[in-house]
Queue: 2 jobs
Job 1
Amino acid sequence: MTEEMNKRLILEQQTVIERLCSSHRNGRIGHAYMFDGERGTGKEAVAIFFAQLLLCSNPENSVPCETCPSCRRVSSSNHPNVTLIVPDGQDIKKEQMSKLVYSMTKKGYESGRKIYIISRADRMNVAAANTLLKFLEEPEGDVTAILLTDSYQSILPTIQSRCQRVSFLPPSREMMIDRLVEKGITPSMAATVSMVTANVDEAFRLAGDDQFAQMRKTVLKLVEASDRHVHEALLFIQSEWVPLFKEKEEAESGLDLLLYAYRDVVASKADLQSTAAFPDQHELFKGLSMKMTYSRLSANMEAILQAKKQLHGNMNRTLLMEQLVLSMQEGLLVV
Ligand SMILES: [Zn+2]
């Protein structure tokens, strides 16, 4: 991860940062923290930031200076007082924990606090968790544990109860779009995938996925086709929609995207300044919004939601889509 991205992640977690900095300011550093939050919320970046703060030789206002030798060694993973544990294969094993406990208790360290960061702490196997638990029960000296997890409920309750829980919220949609664009995704694709998922990694993967790009295109074509002759729209369903959205999950994603498209049409009609799911389709949606009343638009959206429900009732998917198109066609006013 680049330094720039780390900075951004830290900026996005101001509440968490403020809490950690104030515990430093008040001299109340905990023995163990549990950072929990989805992947991509910056837990690792904040853990490094916190380790820097705890070891910095010249913190200003409880913020690490980032220039002293100590800060630099933490950020380049070269500080002897900071140990990072990651799963060895599938899980974190007992031997890893025994080694960790030994190194945290032995002498010969540089002065100052010792910190260990356990990434994916939910992957500790039972023996490893029990070894850690014993250590957490009898904290020795200036040692701080930072456990990271995206699955808090998978952590043993006995370990949960010994850690201060620090929750990382996912970034806002606007922040997420900025981050995706920074990673080279087009603003229009970033806007769409950020509607589909709140997980930045997953959004990034989707944005680069050819099938998803094809789905996006096909959904927009359906919105356009619904504006034309009914036969054309039905033909489109058979020739393009059904072959692409084969699996139930895909069909569901397709209907979700269709719903977001009509949401955009409504926003466009109302001149709302909300962030569109398909900002590149402004012209098309504006044109549609002039042909449709609010009540028809909401009837269309209801029809899409209804179709989603029927999808789970295992209704024939071609039939389901044909019905949907027919009911949406009813909604167009003749102008
Ligand atoms: Zn420093």
Note: The pocket of zinc ion is lined by residues 56-58, 64-66, 68, 70-71 (CB under 6 Å).
Job 2
Amino acid sequence: MSEDLITQALSTATDTKAIVQGRGIVDRTGAVFAEQFPGKRGIVVADGNTWDLAGEAVTASLKAAGVELEEPYVFPGTPTLYAGYSNVELIRDHMKDLDVVACSIGSGTLNDIVKLASGELGRPYMNVCTAASMDGYAAFGASISVDGFKITRNCPAPAALVADLDVMATAPRRLTATGFGDLIEKVPAGADWIISDILGTEAIDEYVWGLVQGPLRQSLSRPGDLAQSDPDAIGELAEGLIMSGLAMQAHQSSRPASGAGHQFSHTWEMEGHGLDWEPALSHGFKVGLGTVAVCALYEVVLSKDLGAIDIDAAVAAWPSRDEMEARVRALHTEERAKPLVEPAVEQTLAKYIDADQLRERLELVVSSWPAIAEKCRAQLISAAEARELLKEVGAVYHPEQIDIDMDRFHQTYYRAQTIRSRYTILDLLLEAGLLKECVEELFAPGGYWTQESSR
Ligand SMILES: [Zn+2]
């Protein structure tokens, strides 16, 4: 990993002060803890699997650095630890009366559980990473299930991270594949931000952009080596993921690392899809599929000339605020969608513009279309390319792989637009009156999702 990039990113991160990455460096955990939390007692938090992986090495390192330790808290290794709020309460209540700072050993789920528990106690914590499985290590906020539905709770990012690539290389292959799926979405998410920037809905911060997009292509360049658990390739993937987390800290928003492809995943997450599987359906598998979905959509859009849209017709067809609300409700009628209807209405109305504002925006779309198209083409990869990369790394690239039938997948193109106020390609198309036309092309004969090569 490029030390300079990390050092630079740490200087603008609000919570994370130290990141140590490399091969065979787990024994530096104690020194990092002692430096970040001088004089504090520690508690190692792990699950049965991550304890077996690094529990003794981490404990030995902490002791060697003079850190006084409580007994470790180890969640069961099987069934796979669930990112449920009850687990947050367990560790929070255990730590509450102890004057300790947690050193967790884990990836997505365990890191999120300890992050939220520590956040609720108002204490910092650090994490020893066990897989390059998501960008949440250095991000604020925790993705936790409450009553069977995933929500994101606010809480600070870890004060320090230790990423020993030899430890991470022993992770199950599906975890590396899911990290790849989370990272590849930063490609179309970048195009979404480009559009948003040009249309004046959310300006690009060049520095933050560079943190994510700078190392991105390199991080995604070795799917075959990642499938073989090559530690150096895992280091490059981990760098991209950690930098994305630091970018979100610097920007105080997930915009740098999340676009329409993530909204596909969030829709299924909010519908509770795969949360009760063993192991639960991972974030990055859904996000990788969302990436293919959105790259395919971009291909259709970029084959058209949005400089020639009929502004009068689009303005005349634009729904009133009440009609927009009714439209959102009509898109989420299934039982599983119940918990997300009200949030979707709120998020959609937060980005609602009236007919006059729409006319202004569409005039800007027409005048800036050559620039939008050129920049997006330079940023994007094709759906076929995204699919090949995901396939090679062992991730998900077709809805049937994760039990989403074609009809539900098709509808997700419309539903995903409603669940976040973030402006993406889906919003541009809805406003231009082209969302239906473009999405339907993907599912018509000859469209991406009807071709054999999409399988
Ligand atoms: Zn993500």
Note: The chain has two domains: 3-170, 177-451.
